[in-house]
Design brief:
The chain has two domains: 18-80 and 398-465, no CATH class; 152-157 and 170-373, Type I PLP-dependent aspartate aminotransferase-like (Major domain) (Aspartate Aminotransferase, domain 2, 3-Layer(aba) Sandwich). Helix 5 (125-143) crosses helix 15 (376-391) and helix 7 (186-204) runs parallel beside helix 8 (221-228). It has helices at 18-36, 46-63, 68-74, 104-107, 125-143, 159-171, 186-204, 221-228, 248-257, 279-293, 313-321, 326-330, 357-363, 365-370, 376-391, 394-421, 447-454, and strands spanning 76-77, 116-117, 120-121, 181-185, 211-216, 232-237, 261-267, 300-304, 332-337, 349-354, 424-427, 436-441, 456-457, 459-460, 470-474. A seven-stranded mixed β-sheet has the order 4-10-9-8-7-5-6, with helices on both faces. Strands 11-12-15-14 form a four-stranded antiparallel β-sheet. The chain has a two-stranded parallel sheet with strand order 1-13. Strand 5 (211-216), helix 8 and strand 6 (232-237) form a beta-alpha-beta unit. The chain has 17 helices and 15 strands. Helix content is 44%, strand content 14%. The radius of gyration is 23 Å and the shape is globular. Its cofactor is pyridoxal 5'-phosphate.
Length: 483
């Protein structure tokens, strides 16, 4: 579905009065929703379909000369999780204070020098600092015999940066070294490489079937990736009373009923639900997997850590500590990224850490046969950003506070909307992590009807392998105004 919106009011020769603009916009919104509803579960998947609806609707509204402030009020994009720092308006304290979040784009080097951000002018200091650091990092690599501008026969990234990312994992209590780490173009690329690499291992071992277990609701891209590499997909539908997390008993049942399961994909802090596994819950899962290993059945965990760092630090440290036990670590492959934790989605900075260095070496076939070499300029940029976060640790704290503010505001906003429209059966309060809200809709309401009534575009639960009576909203892209 890619055709433009065509309305009976499509030929607007002059700007309509504002009240008529609103009527026209709502009509256009109803028309595009009616056309896309049959296709929501096809093609690129519900997340991208909902995002496409928003984009196409906005384009048509501009074509119809509808005022921008009306478009902004009637079309609220809460589909994609990316944080657009250029659009941040929140300022909870004095200008330039730690509670002035408008400065984040400047402080993270995203803002161009002199750019205007809702009353704030970027000085560009970090923009220039990052580029100076890239020069210093290139000198460092050359002094150690690594030239990022030529072919890399290993293809998994330069050894200095791999060592730095090992140190990053050590901060979480994970005892690994540089040879455990392979760099990736974000978490999705890392997961794809891991799944392909493990499938290669199974083939060379003569294994005829390999299955993977996905607790749902969950991030659905790895399911598509696993299917393409020949995995047998097993999905386990979790329950609201367990806050949508697989329990030890449920994991045991799933493994016993499907002997081909060799991989468990586990998002430690969950997208879409915004709930996180506690240390106790993780230890219980580890105990189940330990029981099967003692029966000579090796099961790897792919631990997706995309949102570790967005939650309360002491709770994240407790979660990560459960993976440090030698037998657990040996069978865990961690996938990490700066995309969500540091709002650097477009930079695609990720890394894969294998608890067993022999696994890191074995799955590297995915890198050498897929990328040949990681881009040199990209690696230098990655190194500069890592130095930035080491030099200015307060940035991570400020981002965490910013996420907390937006999540709290979104929940309050949804509660206010519910008083007016009675759309929700339950608006869940999260574990103070991720960039989402997960809520249950009343009978007869879905993501489409909610968008039609409120103008807020979310992603239906089917986008995460669950029921469409649930919906995920993002705090990213655009600000959340106070309720």
């Amino acid at each position: 579905m890619s055709q433009s919106i065509t309305s009976s009011d499509s030929s607007v020769s002059s700007v309509l009065p504002r009240d008529e603009q609103r009527v026209l916009l709502r009509k256009l919104r109803s028309e595009i929703l009616a056309r896309y509803r049959p296709h929501i579960k096809k093609g690129a998947g519900p997340i991208r379909v909902m995002a496409r609806i928003v984009t196409e609707l906005k384009e048509e509204c501009r074509h119809q000369q509808i005022d921008q402030d009306i478009i902004d009020a009637e079309i609220v994009n809460r589909t994609i999780g990316d944080i657009d720092l250029r659009l941040v308006t929140e300022c909870e304290g004095e200008a330039g204070s730690t509670l002035d979040y408008r400065t984040l784009a400047d402080e993270l080097g995203i803002a161009l020098p002199g750019a205007q951000f809702n009353g704030y002018t970027a000085n560009g200091e970090t923009y220039h600092w990052l580029r100076a650091q890239m020069l210093e990092c290139e000198k460092l690599l050359l002094s150690q015999g690594y030239d990022p501008r030529i072919y890399d026969i290993y293809g998994v990234g330069n050894p200095v940066l791999r060592g730095w990312m090992a140190e990053e994992m050590q901060k979480w209590g994970i005892p690994v070294e540089a040879q455990h780490v392979n760099l990736s173009l974000g978490a999705m690329n890392g997961i794809d490489n891991v799944l392909r690499g493990l499938a290669h291992i199974y083939r060379t071992q003569g294994t005829t079937e390999w299955g993977i277990l996905f607790p749902e609701p969950g991030f659905n891209v790895p399911e598509w990736q696993a299917q393409s590499y020949g995995y047998h997909i097993h999905c386990y539908k979790t329950l609201p009373e367990q806050r949508f997390k697989i329990t030890a008993t449920q994991l045991d049942t799933a493994l016993a009923s499907a002997p081909d399961i060799r991989v468990l994909y586990l998002t430690v802090s969950n997208n879409p639900t915004a709930f996180s596994y506690s240390a106790e819950e993780l230890n219980a899962l580890h105990a189940v997997l330990r029981k099967y290993r003692e029966q000579d059945r090796q099961i790897y965990i792919i631990a997706d850590l995309a949102y570790i760092g967005t939650g309360k630090p002491e709770e994240d440290r407790a979660r990560m500590a459960t993976f440090a036990a030698p037998d657990v670590l040996h069978n865990t492959i961690f996938v990490s990224s700066f995309s969500k934790t540091h709002t650097l989605t477009g930079e695609r900075f990720g890394w894969v850490t294998s608890g067993d260095p022999t696994v890191a070496a074995a799955i590297a076939v995915s890198w050498t046969n897929g990328l040949a070499a990681l881009p040199g300029e990209w690696q230098l940029r990655y190194m500069a950003y890592y130095r930035l976060f080491q030099d200015r640790p307060w940035l991570t704290e400020k981002l965490r506070a910013f996420y907390h503010l937006r999540r709290a505001r979104l929940i309050a906003q949804l509660q206010m909307i519910d008083k007016q429209y009675q759309l929700f059966d339950e608006i869940y309060v999260d574990d103070d992590a991720t960039v989402y809200n997960w809520s249950k809709l009343k009978d007869g309401i879905d993501a489409f009807s909610l968008f039609e009534q409120t103008g807020i575009a979310g992603v239906p639960g089917s986008g995460f392998g669950y029921d469409d009576e649930y919906i995920r909203f993002s705090i990213g892209v655009i600000p959340v105004n106070p309720a």
